[in-house]
């Protein structure tokens, strides 16, 4: 869940942006997704369009605009720069989908993702916001989160604090059909220069291919990738 800034018009504008990011939509669907009144949704979307943060597609639906890409091109993110070097090699080694996740409050956000060129894959779009209650990436990020965040998430999680202790002990986590049926994954923590966990790097794919013990298969390669990311940070 996104946090409110307390600035009403800004929070509503961001709600519109995130709603359109899911997929292009017209005014009626935008109102349905955001819960905003028709006049408010139209006014905000039109304003975002003026600033090129939204645009119109061939069907006259709102979609994300070029202004977002232009703004993003000015962002220097050391984690993404490191991921651009390390993730392709990890995908090559495993032949599976690879992702980088950051924690934002009680959710995790996919900030980078690469998919195998062919075959079944676990598609996680960049920008996707996933719950911290399931999946190996969630376990890694929650294992090193502050106690308040752990207490907020664990009651609804598909794992326990004992599992988190095991993650901290061995340095990686795995999951089988937790986040999504038929999908298995393994994740490891990425640390900054101070040793703080700032992200999780993951490998995921169909259980039929990756197996029900993905950690036994990919943990060593994943830990090497996490170490490579940390060195580049």
Could you explain the architecture of this structure?
It is a single chain. With 233 residues, this protein is α+β, with helices and mostly antiparallel strands. The chain folds into two domains: 8-72, Winged helix-like DNA-binding domain superfamily/Winged helix DNA-binding domain (Arc Repressor Mutant, subunit A, Orthogonal Bundle); 78-232, GAF domain (Beta-Lactamase, 2-Layer Sandwich), CATH 3.30.450.40. Helix content is 46%, strand content 21%. The protein contains ten helices and eight strands. Strands 5-4-3-8-7-6 form a six-stranded antiparallel β-sheet, sandwiched between helices. Helix 1 (8-22) crosses helix 3 and helix 5 packs antiparallel against helix 10. It is globular, with a radius of gyration of 19 Å. The chain starts with 7 loop residues before the first helix and ends with a helix. The model has no long low-confidence stretch (mean pLDDT 91). Residues 67-233 form the IclR-ED domain. It holds the Pfam family IclR_C. InterPro entries: GAF-like_dom_sf (IPR029016), HTH_MetabolicPath_Reg (IPR050707), Tscrpt_reg_IclR_C (IPR014757), Tscrpt_reg_IclR_N (IPR005471), WH-like_DNA-bd_sf (IPR036388), WH_DNA-bd_sf (IPR036390). One of its GO terms (molecular function) is DNA binding. It comes from Mycolicibacterium hassiacum (strain DSM 44199 / CIP 105218 / JCM 12690 / 3849).
């Amino acid at each position: 869940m996104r946090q409110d800034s307390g600035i009403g018009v800004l929070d509503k504008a961001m709600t519109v942006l995130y709603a359109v990011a899911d997929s292009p939509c017209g005014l009626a669907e935008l109102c349905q997704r955001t819960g905003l009144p028709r006049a408010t949704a139209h006014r905000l979307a039109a304003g975002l369009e003026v600033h090129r943060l939204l645009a119109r597609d061939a069907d006259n639906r709102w979609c994300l605009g070029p202004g977002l890409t232009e703004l993003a091109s000015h962002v220097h993110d050391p984690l993404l720069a490191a991921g651009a070097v390390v993730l392709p090699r990890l995908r090559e080694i495993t032949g599976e989908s690879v992702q980088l996740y950051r924690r934002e409050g009680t959710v995790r956000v996919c900030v980078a993702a690469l998919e195998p060129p062919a075959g079944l894959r676990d598609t996680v779009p960049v920008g996707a916001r996933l719950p911290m209650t399931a999946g190996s990436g969630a376990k890694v990020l929650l294992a090193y989160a502050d106690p308040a965040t752990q207490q907020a998430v664990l009651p609804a999680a598909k794992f326990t604090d004992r599992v988190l202790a095991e993650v901290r002990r061995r340095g990686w986590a795995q999951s089988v059909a937790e986040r999504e049926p038929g999908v298995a994954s393994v994740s490891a923590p990425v640390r900054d220069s101070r040793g703080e966990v700032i992200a999780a790097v993951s490998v995921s794919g169909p259980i039929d291919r990756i197996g029900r013990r993905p950690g036994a298969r990919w943990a060593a390669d994943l830990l090497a990738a996490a170490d490579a990311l940390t060195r580049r940070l």
